[in-house]
Design goal:
Length: about 450
């Protein structure tokens, strides 16, 4: 009996000591709370992330509420296990479903720690931000667009939006073409160049405009698509070509690949990688339209391949690979001087795999020209170039059988048929007639609306 009592007392003592050592300490600092910046826009369904931190006591619980006038909604209540010192919590808000009206509201976070301070109730931290609840997408009014667009070709659209639009463009299939805004009075005027490339996997074109909350307004573009003949071409691949052109484009460890494996790797994987890089480089123009009039074609050149050519590659009588040609091939004398096709700014010079030595020029409004397989270039990134100014010399660097220029036109990073841009009449009738008011700084927009 006495022994049992001794054990009991001893155990109680151990637990007591344990409690002192292992219990959350007495500390007086409330939890730290991280919130999105004040003024954050919230649409009908949105998500925000909050961060909580408390040391050394650790976090006990958090309550997140939304408040508007006299109304009050609890968005989240959560308790944390012992030893939680830092968490990030994503919060899904559905203000419209809750009945929150458009306009300002207060997002408040109250977090409590496990300190024994305050008679064991812990320290309470509070933080709040003002959010702007917005369910209404921007207003969009289409002013004009190119009605007849060739397959693989380009068109333009001009539209105006309410001032809350922060991003807009044209969506075609899987592709997005960015529009560029210009403030005119209390309206935002937007111009966009878009393409209908067959690789877009869809032909429906829509204008889409977003506000800061992410609300989107979508309106269809009425376009008649004109077919253009697609060239199918079979190219015979020789062992000599594979030795000379394919293996040098691969890292040294790929030297053991068979000729067919090596060819497929370059023509498919490396091609895809190179095209992704080019798309990224040419995704967004840095400024307003710089081009003037038709684009220049390589002097005294002969077209040896066109845009969209479907190429089939045959090696020793067997089909081994396919590719789509995304530019025009122009052959002249060897090492022929290459001119900038129009006014613009050089945004890239360098070696890009199958394209060899490349120069890319930004002409503004999402329009870029690309010059590939060059021997060398005589401009550098950032240079402003004039139409006709020599920027490099032709060669067969990269995956080219002979000396020629591969010339490309990209809209928002997506290659389209360059042939149209050499055509003064097409440019005037299909592009400039639509974008005129944008270039004139808005003059004539009103008459346009009437017509
Ligand atoms: Zn080419």
């Amino acid at each position: 009996m006495k022994k049992a009592l001794t054990i009991l007392v001893f155990t109680a003592l151990l637990v007591g000591v344990g409690a002192v050592f292992f219990a959350p300490p007495f500390e007086r600092k409330p939890p730290k709370i991280q919130l999105p910046s004040s003024g954050t826009y919230i649409k009908a369904k949105a998500s925000v992330e909050i961060g909580l931190e408390d040391r050394p006591a650790g976090l006990k619980e958090v309550t997140v509420t939304l408040e508007q006038g006299k109304n009050h909604w609890t968005l989240l209540y959560k308790t944390f296990p012992m030893g939680t010192y830092y968490v990030r919590i994503p919060i899904t808000l559905e203000p419209k479903r809750l009945g929150v009206r458009e306009g300002p509201a207060i997002l408040e976070v109250v977090a409590v720690d496990r300190s024994l301070w305050n008679l064991g109730k812990g320290n309470t931290g509070r933080a709040s931000i003002q959010v702007k609840v917005d369910y209404t997408p921007p207003r969009v009014e289409l002013l004009d667009n190119t009605r007849y667009v060739y397959e693989n070709g380009a068109g333009a659209a001009l539209f105006q939006t309410s001032l809350d639009a922060v991003r807009a463009g044209v969506r075609v299939g899987t592709l997005f073409f960015r529009a560029y805004p210009r403030r005119i009075g209390d309206q935002e005027l937007w111009a966009v160049l878009f393409g209908l490339p067959l690789y877009a996997h869809g032909k429906k074109a829509q204008i889409i405009a977003w506000d800061q909350a992410g609300n989107a307004r979508i309106i269809p573009l009425n376009i008649h698509i004109l077919p253009r003949k697609v060239v199918r071409e079979t190219l015979r691949v020789s062992d000599d070509f594979i030795q000379r052109k394919i293996y040098p484009l691969l890292p040294s460890e790929d030297a053991r690949l068979s000729p067919v494996e090596a060819f497929k790797k370059v023509n498919e994987e490396l091609r895809r990688e190179n095209e992704t890089l080019i798309s990224r480089l040419a995704a967004r123009s840095s400024g307003p339209p710089l081009w003037e009039g038709a684009f220049l074609q390589l002097r005294n050149s002969k077209v040896t391949a066109t845009f969209g050519d479907q190429r089939t590659y045959v090696y020793k009588g067997k089909v081994i690979s396919h590719a789509t040609h995304l530019g025009y091939d122009l052959a002249s004398v060897s090492h022929a001087p290459v001119s900038a096709a129009n006014y613009g700014r050089v945004i890239f010079t360098g070696f890009i795999g199958i394209y060899g030595n490349v120069v890319i020029v930004d002409h503004g409004l999402g329009l870029f020209s690309l010059y590939a397989h060059l021997s060398r270039y005589v401009v550098k990134k950032g240079d402003v170039v004039k139409k006709g100014q020599i920027i490099g010399y032709t060669d067969s660097t990269g995956l080219a059988g002979g000396d020629h220029l591969h010339f490309g036109i990209l809209l928002s990073g997506h290659p389209v048929n360059p042939v149209e841009w050499w055509d003064r009449r097409w440019l005037r009738d299909r592009i400039m007639s639509v974008l005129g008011p944008y270039f004139k700084g808005g003059k004539g927009v009103q008459t346009h609306r009437g017509g």
